[in-house]
Design brief:
- The chain is mostly helical.
- The protein is built from six helices and no strands.
């Protein structure tokens, strides 16, 4: 069990790791790195890659954290409901309702977890080890 006095450090690690992993999903879409095909920048996937790359970088650095996390959370909510539920569960795989709403069944686990992790970060702010904290905005 981690003592409560380490909460600021644990939260900072949480924010940094989630931001970094989110950024890698964006880099995969934009540049085709890490085994994914590069997407057209002016497509829906390209726009998602841009949000993921920039949002992940900002969250990881703790710069404009609340705004970046809120926008990233929204993008993941759209990804879950539009892509994973509407297109995948209702369309191609035809899982149907209610089973199509389960992230494990529609492939939306990452989107659901990122959505709520970023919603939490948006509500809490950057915390320590962040550019926002160095600029005096991390405690708001």
């Amino acid at each position: 069990m981690i003592p409560e006095r380490y909460t600021p450090q644990t939260y900072a690690a949480f924010r940094i790791v989630f931001g970094f992993v989110f950024m890698t999903f964006g880099l995969q879409k934009i540049f085709g790195w890490f085994g994914g095909p590069a997407q057209q920048l002016m497509s829906m996937q390209g726009a998602a890659g841009t949000v993921e790359t920039l949002g992940g970088l900002l969250i990881m650095l703790g710069l404009f954290t609340r705004v970046a996390a809120f926008l990233s959370s929204g993008e993941m909510a759209v990804a879950f409901w539009y892509i994973h539920v509407s297109v995948i569960a209702m369309g191609a795989q035809g899982a149907g309702l209610p089973i199509g709403l389960l992230p494990i069944m529609n492939g939306g686990v990452n989107a659901a977890l990122f959505c709520f992790a970023f919603l939490y970060i948006a509500s809490k702010g950057a915390g320590i080890w962040s550019v926002d904290a160095m600029m005096g905005a991390g405690k708001r």
